[in-house]
Design a protein that fits this description.
heterodimer, A: mainly alpha, globular, B: alpha/beta, four-stranded antiparallel beta sheet
Chain lengths: ~550, ~250
């Protein structure tokens, strides 16, 4: 007789305990940083929920209506999020997880294996939603002085609410894997997820929620709420969760909707268990059958790159990096999200109506140019940590090929740098120039912005490339893991410090220039010399960060032996 | 003890295993040889319960793998060629967890763990994380886990990969002792010397089919070679003897 299913979860707990006992360098910094960010986000969510609810207390019936609607939307959003997340998690826990090779040959009853995997899927798919929803519900409850029963109802509601979409996600995964090989299904899902995220971002942006703040558009508000009301249907678990919590908020117990949540969660779990009992092994076997993967040949790439004047070794590295990147759906598809975000970013400036502030618009616009510069630099740093920092680690167990070949490690690292620098520089310049044009910023500040972002991109990409080589994680499963490592976090900390310093350095001459410009006075020579000095300082700082980052990276690679 | 009847596995239109039958008796060490891509690992994975056969039957110790999977698997110890280990567990924790999977708990499993770690020269590493182990040490730890529950049948895919001569010799000795105690061992290997030294009988698979079966002398007779080594026999039977002259 084998142990009950929690035994199968023990390696997770033991591994976590061992990891905690044997701390690696940077674990404390990482925990403090991510814990701090987590707490700040939870605090912000709590504060916003509390403030909004507090404001709505003044509107009695309308306030109640909006809280009810808000709860319905909150849970509807999370319902789709958990369902999608569960599809991806189930793919991993039931079909791709390495430890299945150990567990399947063991005499573990199928039902126990199912329960352990299902529990993992529910936790993986739902933890983030729970972490987001709990501060919101806490803020709501405290602002409304809810009775203690509300907090109990919140827990009793959230648990089945997470189980229902997780179970549905598991069923979808079983269906998907029965049709596609598991690894292909994961690629399809990742792409679907990103397209979903892109669509969501664009949809929210094009709704133009800022219109609500405009007094002239008040007649549109009722139409806006009518639009919001339409997807909240009584047939969805999100509606049941919202209703049961709204009742608890008023000190009532809504057994109907709570019962609907629990019975649905239980029934779906039984259904999924039966489906997995019947089809999991067949689907798992099918998942192993991808004999030949389809891939993009990219035949144009090599002839195209042969046109570039570069040494064969550098070209070989570049061709390899581009092919690997473009054939990995999980990699290039993130570019779609990036393009959508960049599009929304620029669109924001198009709809930003600063001319409504008659006397201040010019000052606000020019001040905004620096906020814009900092934002573009943060985007650059985020892109660099995601795409450039993991470049060396991405060689993984194949790094021996480079190390045993007659290619200098500096050539290798510089190849990684150019592969990242060119596209990121184009992106950063396009963002800065387009947004400053749409803002109507002073021409000199536009040039200064383009110059500043070029310096910062060079420094940030060089630093990311060098630090990625200094802190490689060859055993990491994916680039996100590398980006979240100690080195990645340290890079982000340094990047933020550098960006703030550079923007501050650039803002000083800009403010002096604008001061003289507004008054129509000529700028004294001493001031001009000081400007040149500051600009030179920015160049020097950027180049030295770039250079020292790359040099340390090359040295670290050479020190690998 | 390990009975395989007309096993077939197809991947789309490709027939990776085509009607393989094997019968490994208690106490027998049976070698399973074949060139790369012949279907050895696919067959082994089906016997281990890692892959569903398209048709055919596997039974371990009289238990049908399809209808009584738990009973069949309880009698089997499996040593894969690329084993999975939890890198963040210690060797002792890993074996305790593995014991739990086979229903072993408490004092006896601790005692057995100590014995096996000592046998495979890992006692000093019992409380170290698996991630710090060399490839050979990981392979020895997997052997510990495979023998932890005293299986009646052992399925081994490439047992000598990554082992130093001392480790390889230890494994050979362990297999011989187990065989004397009546354990059936089905061993897939590319190391023909090992097969020659250890196996009571050998099956050679090619293109998903068993093309030859018998003891080492029987295979020599079948191939019609006088060479005392198994390599020429293997090459002749699998058609791999042709040598193309290439400029090296």
């Amino acid at each position: 007789m084998t142990y009950a299913f929690p035994w199968l979860l023990l390696p997770l707990f033991w591994s976590a305990r061992n990891r905690a006992r044997r701390r690696e360098p940077g674990d404390g910094l990482r925990a403090a940083l991510f814990g701090g960010i987590g707490l700040a986000v939870a605090g912000a969510l709590f504060a916003v929920a509390f403030w909004l609810t507090w404001q709505l207390l003044d509107y009695e019936e309308l306030g109640d209506y909006l809280i009810r609607l808000g709860l319905g939307w909150l849970f509807l959003t999370f319902l789709s999020f958990v369902a999608f997340s569960a599809v991806v998690s189930a793919l991993s826990t039931f079909f791709l997880s390495e430890d299945l090779r150990l567990l399947l040959p063991a005499p573990v009853p199928q039902s126990r294996l199912f329960h352990s995997r299902f529990a993992r899927t529910v936790v993986q798919a739902g933890w983030m939603v729970v972490a987001f929803v709990l501060p919101v519900l806490l803020g709501l409850g405290l602002a409304r002085c809810a009775p203690p029963g509300y907090y109990l109802a919140a827990l009793v509601t959230v648990v089945p609410f997470v189980v229902i979409p997780s179970a549905l996600g598991c069923l979808v995964t079983l269906g998907l894997v029965s049709v596609f090989p598991a690894r292909r299904a994961r690629d399809v899902l990742m792409l679907m997820g990103l397209l979903f995220a892109v669509a969501l971002v664009l949809l929210v942006r094009f709704l133009r929620p800022e219109r609500l703040l405009d007094v002239q558009s008040l007649p549109d508000v009722t139409a806006f709420f009518a639009t919001l009301q339409s997807p909240v249907t009584p047939l969805l678990p999100s509606f049941w969760a919202g209703e049961s919590l709204f009742a608890a908020l008023r000190g009532q117990l809504d057994l109907l909707h709570l019962g609907a949540l629990w019975t649905s969660a239980f029934a779906l779990t039984v259904l999924v268990r039966a489906a997995y009992g019947r089809h999991h092994f067949s689907a798992w076997s099918k998942a192993q059958e991808a004999r030949k993967a389809r891939f993009t040949r990219l035949a144009f790439l090599e002839p195209l790159l042969r046109l570039l004047p570069m040494a064969p070794a550098r070209r070989a590295l570049l061709v390899k990096d581009l092919k690997v990147f473009l054939r990995d759906t999980t990699q290039w598809s993130q570019l779609l999200l990036l393009v959508a975000l960049a599009f929304v970013y620029v669109y924001n400036f198009r709809v930003l109506d600063l001319d409504r502030i008659p006397y201040m618009s010019r000052i606000v616009k020019n001040a905004y140019a620096f906020v814009n510069l900092a934002m573009a630099a943060f985007v650059t740093a985020a892109v660099a940590v995601r795409f450039v920092f993991p470049a060396v680690s991405a060689e993984g167990s194949a790094f021996w090929i480079v190390r045993t070949s007659p290619v200098q490690l500096s050539t290798f690292l510089w190849s990684k740098l150019w592969t990242g620098l060119v596209p990121i520089l184009v992106l950063a310049e396009a963002l800065t120039i387009a947004s400053n044009l749409l803002l109507g910023v002073d021409p000199l500040l536009r040039v200064l912005g383009a110059f500043g972002i070029a310096c910062m991109t060079l420094a940030l990409v060089g630093l990311a490339c060098g630090m990625g080589a200094e802190h490689p994680r060859f055993a990491a499963e994916n680039p996100t893991q590398v980006a979240g490592s100690y080195g990645g976090v340290a890079f982000m900390v340094l990047a933020v410090l550098y960006i703030l310093t550079t923007v501050a350095l650039l803002a000083w001459p800009a403010s002096i220039y604008l001061w003289y410009e507004y008054r129509g006075l000529p700028i004294p020579l001493a001031r001009r010399a000081a400007f040149a000095g500051v600009l030179g300082g920015v160049v020097l700082l950027s180049v030295s960060i770039f250079w020292s980052g790359m040099r340390r990276g090359v040295r670290a690679l050479e020190a690998l032996g | 003890m390990i009975l395989v009847e007309a096993l077939v596995k197809t991947f789309g239109s490709f027939r990776a295993v085509d009607g393989v039958s094997l019968d490994v008796k208690p106490g027998e060490i049976h070698g399973f040889l074949g060139p790369n891509g012949a279907g050895k690992t696919t067959t082994i994975r089906m016997i281990a319960g890692l892959l569903k056969p398209s048709s055919g039957r596997v039974s371990i110790d009289g238990h049908d793998l399809a209808s009584e999977p738990e009973a069949a698997k309880r009698s089997l110890g499996f040593i894969p060629d690329r084993p999975f280990l939890y890198e963040k567990l210690t060797a002792a924790e890993f074996l305790r967890f593995h014991g739990g999977l086979y229903g072993l708990e408490g004092g006896p499993v601790e005692e057995r763990t100590r014995e096996l770690l000592a046998l495979f020269e890992l006692s000093g590493w019992a409380h170290e994380l698996v991630e710090s182990f060399s490839h050979g040490m990981k392979q020895r730890l997997v052997m510990c886990s495979a023998f932890l529950h005293r299986p009646q049948a052992v399925l081994v895919d490439e047992p000598m990969v990554g082992l130093d001569p001392r480790g390889a010799r230890l494994i050979k000795d362990v297999f011989r002792v187990m065989s004397r105690r009546g354990v059936a061992i089905l061993m897939s290997t590319h190391t023909l010397e090992v097969a020659e030294q250890m196996c009571d009988s050998i099956s050679i698979i090619q293109g998903g089919r068993i093309i030859a079966r018998g003891t080492v002398p029987e295979l020599h007779a079948l191939a019609g070679t006088d060479d005392p080594q198994l390599t020429p026999v293997f090459l002749k039977l699998t058609g791999g003897g042709a040598f193309q002259e290439i400029e090296l």
